[in-house]
Each structure stands twice: as C-alpha cells, then as structure tokens.
C-alpha cells in the first residue's frame, strides 16, 4: 500500500455510520422496493439498513476487481441483478456499498440500475459523484480499514517519532 493515511473503523463506529446512513435514506423514500448490495463490502451495511428501514427484499450484485491492494484492475460481474429489479431501470431500488473509491464499481452497477438510489457509508472524491447519499468522505489517498479486515494490534501515533 502506498497510502500514507489510514482510517481504521471499529465495529461500533461502522454500525453507527450505517445507521446514520439509514436515517438519511429514510428521509429520501419510505417504500424502497429492494436493496441491491454490492458484494462483499455492501453486505454488512445492507443488513443494517434493511433492518432499520424494514426492507425484506435484498439482492446482491457480485463484482470482482482483480487488484493488488494498490491498483484496481479489470472488473468482472460474477453475479448479475435479478430481472425483476432491472426491468424499470431500478426505479425505487436502493443500491448499498461500504465505500466508493475510484467509482469504477459504482459506475458499472449504476449502469445496470440507472434510476436506482446509490448509497455508501464512505466515499472518496473520485467515486463521490456517482453516489446519491453517503455519510463520511475521506481523501483519495486514505486507506479505510474495515472492522472485518482488522485484528487487535497496536496502532502507531499519527505523528511520526512520537511514542504512544
């Protein structure tokens, strides 16, 4: 990873942020037809949002990006979206993901459901224009460490050369 900045997110913080996203989405529409979550990162926020909004129909779109954690490679759709949800260009459908980074995955999924509402918990500047609703923006050079990627280890202080 060439990123100098890191943004570790605990389970508690992620849950609070996902619930905050649900609050914002409840103000957008109160009768979502379905949630389409982008796997794998969208699974956890989609579950939280579905609970908070009372949405029972949850679909997945599975997109793989072959990368080395520094650069994003070619995108491949491993599982598409049910025709029941794409028939009306996604009108009334909520797309959920944990993060929009470069915007490549977001653009691909948005092309499948152009009328859907796209929501992410976190957004970076390159991907932000593709998202309708998000909670926190972080700089493009920040690496977000999600709780499912973390173990309990020492975190070095932000200021280099300072002992904890």
From TrEMBL:
Binding residues for GMP: 101-105, 143-144
Broad class of where this protein is predominantly found: membrane
Binding sites annotated in the UniProt record for 5-phospho-alpha-D-ribose 1-diphosphate: 40-41, 97-105
InterPro entries per the UniProt record, alphabetical: PRTase-like, PRTase_dom, Xanthine_Guanine_PRibTrfase
Localization terms from the record: Cell membrane
Any Pfam family matching the protein: Pribosyltran
Keyword list, A-Z: Cell membrane, Glycosyltransferase, Magnesium, Membrane, Metal-binding, Purine salvage, Transferase
Single GO term (MF): hypoxanthine phosphoribosyltransferase activity
Binding residues annotated for Mg(2+), in chain numbering: 98
Residues that, per the record, bind xanthine: 101, 144
EC number: 2.4.2.22
Enzyme class per UniProt: transferase
Ligand binding (guanine): 101, 144
Annotated catalysed reactions: IMP + diphosphate = hypoxanthine + 5-phospho-alpha-D-ribose 1-diphosphate; GMP + diphosphate = guanine + 5-phospho-alpha-D-ribose 1-diphosphate; XMP + diphosphate = xanthine + 5-phospho-alpha-D-ribose 1-diphosphate
Required cofactor(s): Mg(2+)
An individual GO BP term: purine ribonucleoside salvage
Domain (Phosphoribosyltransferase): residue spans on this chain: 10-154
Mode of membrane association: Peripheral membrane protein
One cellular-component annotation, GO: plasma membrane
Pathway given in the UniProt record: Purine metabolism; XMP biosynthesis via salvage pathway; XMP from xanthine: step 1/1; Purine metabolism; GMP biosynthesis via salvage pathway; GMP from guanine: step 1/1
PANTHER family associated with the record: XANTHINE PHOSPHORIBOSYLTRANSFERASE, XANTHINE-GUANINE PHOSPHORIBOSYLTRANSFERASE
Family: Belongs to the purine/pyrimidine phosphoribosyltransferase family. XGPT subfamily.
HAMAP family: XGPRT
Protein name: Xanthine-guanine phosphoribosyltransferase
Lineage, top ranks: Bacteria, Pseudomonadati, Pseudomonadota, Alphaproteobacteria, Hyphomicrobiales
Name of the gene: gpt
